[in-house]
Write a structure and sequence with these properties.
The strands form 3 sheets. The chain has a 4-stranded mixed sheet with strand order 5-7-6-8, sandwiched between helices. By secondary structure, the protein is α/β, with parallel strands linked by helices. α2 links the parallel β3 (37-39) and β4 (52-54). The chain has 8 helices and 8 strands; from the N terminus they run ββαβαβαβαββαααβα. It is globular. It is 34% helix and 18% strand.
């Protein structure tokens, strides 16, 4: 869309705040102030989202590197499960995140549950078992932060046992038209869903 989606105003609030609010119920794990980490955000963006800023030490290497960086940090802190969300989800809420986590709780053999929208997985929207992801990545090219640059989620998923959870609330905004569809006029009680890609 040519600009930072996390800070685009939707219904008078930054778009990224929806993801942050959806994560708050998880609580703050040891070593974090808010429990919600904003990887690669500027200080101003993190303040706007009321999230803890985590510098992107991998130099904007993409969403896979971001997810693996957060999972590495969580595993080192002894956190079992990590939920990662994109910053451009107009309909995500606490219930959607709870549902995603519940699927992982029931899928004991899975190392991850990825949101699925319109028949396609929607990474980085997922919940991960941090220790299993770190173990699976160890000894592979993805263990190197340099190799993570340019890698795809498929490279990671090939190493893991995982499943999906279908939920349109994890649909993202990629175009100005989708943003326009997500805006709720004051007199309409339900938001129109953006078209599924």
């Amino acid at each position: 869309m040519g600009r930072d989606k996390a800070t685009i105003l939707l219904d008078g609030r930054p778009l990224g705040i929806r993801s942050v609010d959806a994560l708050r119920w998880l609580g703050a794990p040891t070593g974090t102030a808010t429990g919600v980490l904003a990887l690669g955000a500027t200080e101003e963006q993190a303040r706007a989202l009321v999230a803890e800023r985590v510098p992107d030490t991998e130099g904007h290497a993409g969403p896979l590197a971001a997810v693996l960086g957060i999972v590495d940090r969580a595993a080192a802190a002894g956190v079992d499960q990590v939920v990662t969300l994109a910053c451009d989800l107009p309909d995500v809420d606490e219930e959607a995140v709870r549902d995603l986590v519940a699927v992982l709780d029931h899928a004991r053999s899975a190392a991850a549950v990825l949101a699925e929208v319109g028949g396609r997985i929607a990474p980085p929207n997922a919940v991960w078992r941090a220790d299993r992801v770190v173990e699976a990545v160890a000894g592979t090219p993805l263990a190197s932060t340099r190799a993570r640059r340019g890698s795809r989620f498929a490279d990671l998923l090939d190493l893991l046992s995982w499943t999906t959870h279908r939920d349109v609330r994890f649909g993202d905004i990629d175009t100005p038209d989708q943003l326009a569809c997500a805006v709720r006029p004051a007199d309409v009680s339900r938001r129109r869903r953006p078209p599924v890609r």
